Amino acid sequence: MSEPKIDSKSIFDLITESIGWIQIIASPTLIGLVLGLITFCYLPNSIGITIAISLAVIGFIIGVVWATKVWRRQGTIDFLSRNNNSKETEKAKEGE
Fold first, then answer.
1. Which backbone phi and psi does 3 adopt, to 5 degrees?
2. How far apart are CA 20 and CA 84, in angstroms?
3. What's the pLDDT tens digit per position in 9-45?
4. d(CA 36, CA 52)
5. Rounded CA gap, 86 and 61, in Å?
């Protein structure tokens, strides 16, 4: 029996989509971490750290769910490209 042929393009696509997936996860995770840090600054006790960790974990979970939905629907690289391109288009319109 022959081994399955590994397509280098599919490996490259998987790697780039995975990097995009991580980039999408980063945004809600960072928001959760910042909110957790602010919470911990106001409540510097065990309840504060529990709430802070919970906010960070919730941000991470939201990021994973969002990134997975984007990957399945349109692809993470396409999603990130459209978001980045719209910012550049707005800057170009303002400069005209």
1. -75, 150
2. 12
3. 688 888 888 888 998 899 999 999 999 999 999 988 9
4. 4
5. 27
Buried-state track 13-25, b at ≥16 Cβ within 10 A, e below 16: eeeebeebbeebb
In whole angstroms, how far apart are CA 14 and each of 4, 24, 46, 47, 75?
17, 15, 41, 41, 10
pLDDT at position 57 over 70: yes
CA–centroid distance for 94 within its chain: 28
Q: Which two structure tokens, joined as six digits, stand for 40? A: 């911990």
pTM above 0.85, yes or no: no
Q: Which structure tokens are listed for 8?
A: 């280098």
Long-range contacts of 73-76 (CB under 8 A, 24+ apart): 75/17, 75/20, 76/17, 76/19, 76/20, 76/21, 76/23, 76/24
| Contact (CB, 8 A) for 76 and 63 | no
* Residue 6 pLDDT > 80: no
What six digits make up the tokens of 54? 């919970």
